[in-house]
Amino acid sequence: MTTGIENQTDANRPGSSVAPGERSSRQIVLPVTGMTCAACQARVQRALAAAPGVRDANVNVMLSNATVEFDPAATTPAELVEAVRATGYGAELPAAGRAAMAEQEAQDEAQERDFRELRGKALVSGALGLVAMLLSMPLMAPLSTTGLGGTGHGSADPLMGWVMGRLSPAVEAALPWLYQIDHRIILAALLAATVTVMGWAGRHFYTRAWAAFRHHSADMNTLIAVGTGAAFLYSVVATVAPGLFLSRGLVPDVYYEAVIIIIALILMGNALEARAKRQTSAALRQLIALQPKTARVLRAGAEIDLPIEQVVAGDTVVVRPGEHVSVDGEVIAGASAVDESMLTGESLPVEKRAGSPVYGGTINRSGAFQLRATSLGADSVLARIVKLMRDAQGSRAPIQRLADRISGVFVPAVLSLAIATFVAWYLLAPEAPLVRAVAAAVAVLIIACPCAMGLAVPTAVMVATGKAAEFGILIKGGEALERAQAVTVVVLDKTGTVTEGRPAVTDVVLLDQTRSEAEVLRLAASLERRSEHPLAEAVVARATQAGLALSEPEGFKAMTGQGAVGMVDGVAVVIGNAVMMAEYGLEVGELAPVTDRFTADGKTPLYVNLNGTIAALFAVADPVKPTSGEAIARLRAMGLDVVLLTGDHPGTAAAIARQVGVERVIAGVRPEGKVAEIARLQESGQVVAMVGDGVNDAPALAKADVGIAMGTGTDIARDAGDVTLMRGDLRSVAEAIHLSRRTMRTMKQNLFWAFIYNVVGIPVAAGVLYPAFGVLLSPILASAAMALSSVSVVTNSLRLRRLRTA
């Protein structure tokens, strides 16, 4: 999550999309309090979008914040805060310098407090509701018409009346003393209990509804407050002035126990919803939990444990076996295998030795080592990943716009329907029109739920981005998630994406049988150690892996574009291409069958000349990653076309394509040519995902519908693409697309059920089934349905947590 204000575009910054002379744009994330449903979210978003200088606003009810992009020359953060407050909701400037990890921890604590508070209020209200049911049973018996209470007070709710009618004989037999209590005392107790629940447990419904009314708006709290308030006022009149009902032939039934149970059920639904919403950010909490609180620092020759905040760049940190690495750094002494799976998704431990980078939050599995602290606090890899995930979870998927449009008019429409329902029942009901009109109108108000629509998309985005992080994938927001599911063709860069990106000696053909392979390799590598050419580095790496001791060359000379020459341990060594051999009078034509085979496989031949004789032939190539073939097979099995797009030689590209199963190859393309090729695919109707290293391929990544950057080490939090793969494994591309497809399906399911619930539930509550089937929905059942609708949407989104890899 972004804290404070940060530049998004600046005309003076290299690579900026803002032309000179244009105004810069800044972004701020404002904490917003009091939002409970989609209607709240829509109102705040409309207010911010209409504010002067605002270029984009994204309000998230799940995270209780608003991300605003604005022109600092036209408005200020303080004015944006006031724009939010003018809608009736709370807002404040973000705490300066507060890290994303600290903000997430604070949010988790607030969610936990909310859950405990809601659960406590729901349980107490539910218990009072059961007591109210018992107290109401004696009221169902006929009474005298004098005094407080009148005649035949019972439950006006049809469900409660039916339940209490069935239970009343058993209760009277078990608790005969209850039926001896003066009914006026019972009514007074019921009134007191209802006032207690409304004024304590349900107080926030009424205060928020009043705040919305004062700002000329309405939300979910308005529906609950009007519904329960109307039922309560009806009951109070029936209690204190029963004659008004009796004179018109009506029984002065009351809704006290119904109001209490409605509030209890809504609170219980809110508590379950709060708990489920907290689970959507479980992946973030797991990441944050990786960060150790202390570090063992070496100062003045002594090891001391310091709070992580007191570690400074350059400190020497000691890490023992089994401990978490406390900070990002570089190994300066010792060696070990470090488990980085929690950051990259890579299951195998990574070998670390002097010079290797290590990252805070990873686990040291074997040996002890010392590291020099480098990136700390908000600059650490773990903190940047948390920030990116929070940014992604706070983003908006385009599919959310439909729900936003409906939410904007939902509450006023429901209030109008409730009034129409009351009038229709009052005028058309065959008997007890007032009682039935109130019951139906209350049911309409209570069952309507804008919450489910507001939660349908954000919950799925939050769970999906968290699940992606478990797979070692960083998805930069809901929009990227939605676009990825529509991808039809995946374009792959070759170097560093399909291949390792590091040349290696793949074959050694020994030609001089008087020398061993190890001796030839040692002499060649001893010479090449002074060269900076990538092919030379490959020869040296092969010798190092073989554990060969290299000598210091004499008279080293590099021949540009050909090779190198020098003396090693008294042996004249020449290593290079065919042109280099010709310079020294050696014919290599008889080796053509071998070199042609190497070339056909995309390998570069290197001749090793020792004392005037070609002693060996090396084949150097950028080897294909072991998982690339499997990954491409997965992509094709998912119905995706795969294209290899590279600037390499056509022959080399074709050889690599054959190895991994790619049928379409576009080779010899410069960076600007890659952009043109992607544009050509898009013009043919394809939705293109481009996979590259995020550096040389940056223009192509930006042009593609979905840019997927391969990131490793400190690059895993780079901003080059819409999606960043935290490990260099192409299988993650298939996993990202598979996850996006499942997430989109979940979003559509959530929106369908949110809409269909209201489309079906509201008419049933209004009584459209009554003329044909005699079905009239109880307000209590309506409140239970309303409470469960939001919970069902969040629970459906949580199913994504069980998703397996593609």
Q: Could you describe the 3D structure shown?
A:
- By secondary structure, the chain is α+β, with helices and mostly antiparallel strands.
- It is built from 28 helices and 27 strands.
- Strands 15-27-26-25-16-23-24 form a seven-stranded mixed sheet, sandwiched between helices.
- Strand 3 and strand 4 (65-70) form a beta hairpin.
- The longest helix has 37 residues, at 100-136.
- The protein is elongated, with a radius of gyration of 36 Å.
- The two termini are 29 Å apart.
- Work out the number of β strands: 27
Shape: elongated
Mean pLDDT over all positions: 83
Mind describing the biggest β-sheet? 7 strands, mixed
- The share of residues in extended strands comes to 15-25%
Q: How far apart lie the N and C ends?
A: 29 Å
